[in-house]
Every structure is written in structure tokens, then in C-alpha cells.
Amino acid sequence: MRLYLIIILSIITLSCNNKKQELNLLSQDRAYNGPIIDMHIHVDKPEDLPPFSLSLCPPFSNLIEHFDPINEFEDVWNEKFNNPDCENPLVSPKSYQDYQQRIEKQLKQNKVIAVASGAFEDIVKWKLEYPKQIIPSLEFRIGRDSISPEQMKTILIDNDIKVIGEISNQYFGIAPNDPRMFPYYKMAEELDIPVAIHLGSGIPGTPYMGYPKYEAKLSNPLLLEDVLKRYPKLRVSIMHYGEPFIDELITMLYHYPQVYVDIGGIQWAYPKEYFYEYHLKKIVVAGFGKRIMYGSDMIIWPELIEHSINIINDAPFLSYEQKADIFYNNASRFLRLNPRQN
Ligand SMILES: [Zn+2]
């Protein structure tokens, strides 16, 4: 009798364990299919688009595997976009209409609401055209955008703009803790409007291609420490998560619990195995899965949105729930889209 009971109990326990394992496997295998918030797309005006199609074979990091400075880097780089050497390159739109239609298709097909960064007139236009898909975000760079904090405040309020970003001072060699930014941070804190700051890699060879003042060392998230102490109520998203300063990022997420990150294109800028193993997994395992937000960094290739979504969905170590956090819940909480969330 006792032996019989032990056998029954063992069978029940085994089948429970099997079910648990099955459930885990299922949730890990399942692609997330709910709504998505893309924290990082760019919207351009017609004259910003290249006049010819450019073909991209991601990832960026090994697009030029080696380079002899006897050549001009810009020429070598551009050549790759004229003569792609992968099977299915992403091809940039031939016209503005094509660009708009393909972005619209990507947003609708993938159930994406996009925080769209751009110049004031562009984001207002896109918001009017796609009110359900676009959250306008005012881009800003000292030296390029001559606008005072007071003027910015008026623009933000009058046009119901939800985010200040992409703040791209790094392209001009200006650190996130540059005192010239303080009045803008102060205004954002008072208005309770989040800021999204570019900290991380631009395209390979950025200093040789139009941005001689770009400084890679300014990607370091530790540079935000002064800002977060001075403006403790400021909501901050680190765009590109300060890549590749991953340990510095971890300590910032640990010490400053209000800080969020967006993965902004790094998932396709490097081979995904590298992104998974050394960055995404590290942030999740360290305990910060509730502060990672999805972002595609779509610039001129609309299909990068889907490509970027697939990379997150393919991450072998993420459960369905963790994917839902990255794709939607975390950004929704950060942006306060649903006031009932906590
Ligand atoms: Zn950026």
C-alpha cells in the first residue's frame, strides 16, 4: 500500500514538474504578439531622405570588417550601401510617399505605437496624420537647435508633446552633464516630461562622417550622475542604454531606480548573439528587466522596426512575460500612459 502511494505521488510530482517545464518552454518559445511601444524612431522631412535607395545588411559592427586609412572611410562605408553583400538587404524608400506608407504599414502590422523623434514641425505633422500610432518627441541638440528652455516649454505645452528626445549632444562632443543642459532638465523636471538622451554608439566611423566632434567616451552612463542628483524627479531614458558601458549602466540602474533604458537599435547594430549574451541578458539577470524598453532606432529603413522586434522575440532566455515588459509594460509605465499602473 505504502509503495503504491509513493509511486502515485512520484507520478503526480513528475507530471507537475513536466508541466512546469513545458509551460516554461512554451513561454520562452512564444513570440510576443501584443501591442508594442517603440521608444525610438526618427521621422524626417522629404529633404532629409537620401535621393537614392540605400541597401542595409545589418549588423553595423562588422559591415566594414577592416579598413585601411589610405582610403576615405565615408567612401568605403557608402559603397556598402550601394553594393550590399547579403541576400535580403533592407532597402530605403525611393520617395517620401513610399517612406510614409512603409512606416505606416510597419506600425499597423506590428501593433506599434512609436515615440517619434524629430524637429517640431515634423513631429506635429506625423502626430496629426497618425494620431493613434505616434507619440511626438522633440529632438534637441545644443548648437543646432537655438531654442531657449522657455521657448521649449511653450512648444511642449502648446502641442502636447510627450517626450524631449532624442537629445543628441554627444554628436557635438557635449556631455549629458554639461551645465548648458541644466536649465532644460530643470524645465523638464518641473513640467514632469521625460527626457531621452542619446548615450551610446552612433554608426561606425561617426567622427569621420560628418560629426568630427562626436566622442565615444561620452556614452558612459556615469556621466548622468550629476544630473540625477541635481534633478531627482526628472524621468530619464538612456537611449541605446549607454552601450557598450554595460557595467557602468548596471551601477546606474542600481543606484538610480528611476532610470530606464531603451535598447534603441543596438540589437541590430551588433550580431544578436553578442547583444543577447553580454548586454540584454546581463541587464535582465541583474534584476532590471522592468526598466528595459524596446526601441528600433528606425531612421530611413522602415522594415528595421520588424527586424528589431524579431531579434527581441528570438532571445532564447526571455519568457513571454519578460518580452511583454520590454515591448510594452515598461514604456507604458515610464510614459505614464496608464495612470493606474505602478
Ligand atoms: Zn541615438
UniProtKB/TrEMBL annotation:
Domain of life: Bacteria
Listed GO biological process terms: secondary metabolic process
Any Pfam family the entry gives: Amidohydro_2
Keywords (A to Z) from UniProt: Lyase
A GO cellular component annotation in the UniProt record: cytoplasm
Transmembrane parts of this sequence: none
Gene3D superfamilies named in the record: Metal-dependent hydrolases
Domain Amidohydrolase-related: 37-337
An MF annotation (GO) of this entry: hydrolase activity
InterPro entries: ACMSD, Amidohydro-rel, Metal_Hydrolase
PANTHER family xref list: 2-AMINO-3-CARBOXYLMUCONATE-6-SEMIALDEHYDE DECARBOXYLASE (PTHR21240), ISO-OROTATE DECARBOXYLASE (EUROFUNG) (PTHR21240:SF28)
Protein name per Swiss-Prot or TrEMBL: Amidohydrolase-related domain-containing protein
Organism: Algoriphagus chordae
